[in-house]
Amino acid sequence: MIEISSEMTAKLIATAHEMQKYSYIPYVEFAVGAALLTADDEIYTGCNIQNAALSPNICAERTAFFKAVSEGKTKFKAIAIVGGPDREIGDFCFPCGVCRQVMVEYCDPDSFIIITANDKGEVKTVTLSELLPYSFGPENL
Ligand code: ZN
Fold first, then answer.
1. Which of 13, 21, 49, 117 is the most exposed, having the fewest neighbouring CB atoms within 10 Å of its CB?
2. Is residue 119 part of a domain?
3. Residues 18, 61, 130, 139: which is the catalytic one?
4. Domain enclosing residue 83, as ranges
5. pLDDT at 79 > cutoff 90
6. How far apart are the CA of 8 and the centre of ligand 1, in A?
7. Which pTM value belongs to this model?
């Protein structure tokens, strides 16, 4: 597992929280923000974006990943994710299954780190392989 300093962890969580204010959430009042750390220590951000037709909804994590990939970044160290009502941090917010699969496309499951925090200031840090064991990724093709 890559070590992420406590300062960087705090910065990623604060950045993810800042992104909650940009969430486009007219249908379900639940704002999610994400801050994705690239291998060269750049941070790409994302928020959740809802849609009236529902299936075009996109999560904050995938927004951050696709922004980064669209600018040529494909190596990543960590992502911080926070979510909750009222554009504030609520309970721990782990990525959905679709986002976990997107992460496997670009990240080493044993070293990529997912960070989430709750409204009590508690932080949980897990590897992608802990969230998505026995995954199907590029190495399977
Ligand atoms: Zn998701």
1. 21
2. yes
3. 61
4. 6-140
5. yes
6. 23
7. 0.97
